[in-house]
Amino acid sequence: MRMAQLSERSGTPVPTIKYYLREGLLPRGERTGRTQARYGEHHLRRLRLVRALTDVGGLSIAAVREVLDKVDSPEPTTHQLLGRTLRDLTPTASGDVDVQAEEVDTERVRALVERRNWRVPAEARPFADLAEVIAAFRRAGHPVDDTALDDYAAAVESVARVDLDSLEEITETDEILESAVVRTVLGDTLLAVMRRLAQFDESARRSPATDDDC
Amino acid sequence: MRMAQLSERSGTPVPTIKYYLREGLLPRGERTGRTQARYGEHHLRRLRLVRALTDVGGLSIAAVREVLDKVDSPEPTTHQLLGRTLRDLTPTASGDVDVQAEEVDTERVRALVERRNWRVPAEARPFADLAEVIAAFRRAGHPVDDTALDDYAAAVESVARVDLDSLEEITETDEILESAVVRTVLGDTLLAVMRRLAQFDESARRSPATDDDC
DNA sequence: CCATAATGGATAGCTCAACTATCCAAAAGA
DNA sequence: TCTTTTGGATAGTTGAGCTATCCATTATGG
Question: Roughly what angle, to the nearest 10 degrees, separates helices B146-168 and A173-206?
Fold first, then answer.
């Protein structure tokens, strides 16, 4: 297909597609002439993937390029590569928060990891990220206590089991990484939205009053 | 204290504080002269709150202003106000995603809510949000099945119970709304980061190989 | 008490990300 | 043939989130 069709079928304006081509988010089409090119279903899929990661997942163009580079990497999908890819998907909008966690926060994360028997090294990216988030709670004047942390940890453990189960169902090995990225990034948004629904329900359950509030 | 001290104690540049004052994220200080004003601990707390919500929570300035307006609203903290405040904290980075969910996605959300016995009306904001996220999975070529949805729902139910428990511990009624906002917004980031750790652990648990990968 | 420095507020400017518009030569279609 | 469309290159636009400048006033040190 040509770019116009790619645009129509994906709902993305042609100039935006050209921009993605320039930025390396989308591979070039197959050249059929000096000023002509063809695009296939693969391009359409990739384009829809990019839109999902940016629009719903909230990733920046630069972040999308980074993870797609890994997804396209030719090396086999080993546990290491999977781990490295997931690790770099920091959910903080900017990603490069220069807020440094204090010693006390890092220590709490270390203790949590030990309590949960998590096999993650203290050098792992999300390890430091978690310390920073816990520090942010404290600085905002609303610290989280260890009980809540443990409860949250138990919840994400079951989430992670579902995540890994979903990946094991995938037979095409070259789709595993892409699926892991999509399910992790969009899954963050899904869990956040679902949490609002559950909060809403739990709040209604605890409130004795009539609640016909939309 | 004066603005210079407010800046130093919060780690925020003076021009940024002035910007927040203009944007209504921070109340004006108490005027002590035609070109002088005093700021108190309340301003410092509020400033740190703003930084946490933007830097770590990923909220836009406009979104922060909206939720702070509700936090500052003089009406008592009823269940309705709490629900309305939490409802409007859409986690999607932009918030105003114009991607429309299809009928099939909305129907799946309706069925999920029924299976879980959630007391949320179909007109609630997160209801439509969830349909949109599920649609995004499908369009990206990696649909979620109902089994995963149910498992995620069970996980967020326990998260929501922890959330509401934390709120019940708060005695100062005028702090409940602020705490709900902070715990919800920063909690999204915390859960996402913790999920990475749990994925990392679960992956290591399932992989027979040696994994000294950072 | 006077000179100097700092302050709060208003206004305008800057920077970056994410597009969007224009142009052009070549190719496609009528 | 001749009009339209295409892909690619280049430059321009928009909005968010700061940042810099200016000025009258106020604090402050000698």
Answer: 40
d(CA A23, CA A61): 8
Three-class DSSP category at A53: helix
User: CA A144, B180, A183, A110: dihedral to nearest 10 degrees?
Assistant: 0
Contact, A144 vs A104, CB < 8 A?
no
Q: Is B89 at the interface with chain A, CB within 8 A? A: yes
Which residues are paired to B33 by β-bridges? B36
- How far apart (Å, rounded) are the C-alpha atoms in residues A203 and B161? 9
Run of H or E residues at B39: none
Q: Do A152 and B130 touch (CB under 8 A)?
A: no
pLDDT at A208 over 90: no
- Listed as ranges, the nucleotides of chain C within 7 A of a protein C-beta are 6-11, 17-22, 25-28
**Which amino acid is it at A91?**
P
Interatomic CA distance for residues A169 and A184, integer angstroms: 16
Supply B191's token pair: 């859960």
Over the stretch A97-137, which tens digit does the pLDDT of each residue have? 555 668 999 999 999 999 999 999 999 889 999 999 999 99
Tokens of A153: 């940890």
Q: State how far the Cα of A210 lies from the Cα of A111, in Å rounded to an integer.
A: 43
d(CA A170, CA B149): 17
**How far is the C-alpha of A137 from the C-alpha of B71, rounded, in Å?**
17
pLDDT tens, residue by residue, B155-167: 999 999 999 999 9
In angstroms, the separation between the Cα of residue B57 and the nearest Cα of chain A is: 7
Helices (H), B117-172: 125-139, 146-168
Give mean pLDDT, residues B59-79.
Answer: 84
pTM reported for the whole predicted model: 0.92
CA torsion sign for A64, A68, A69, A75 is positive
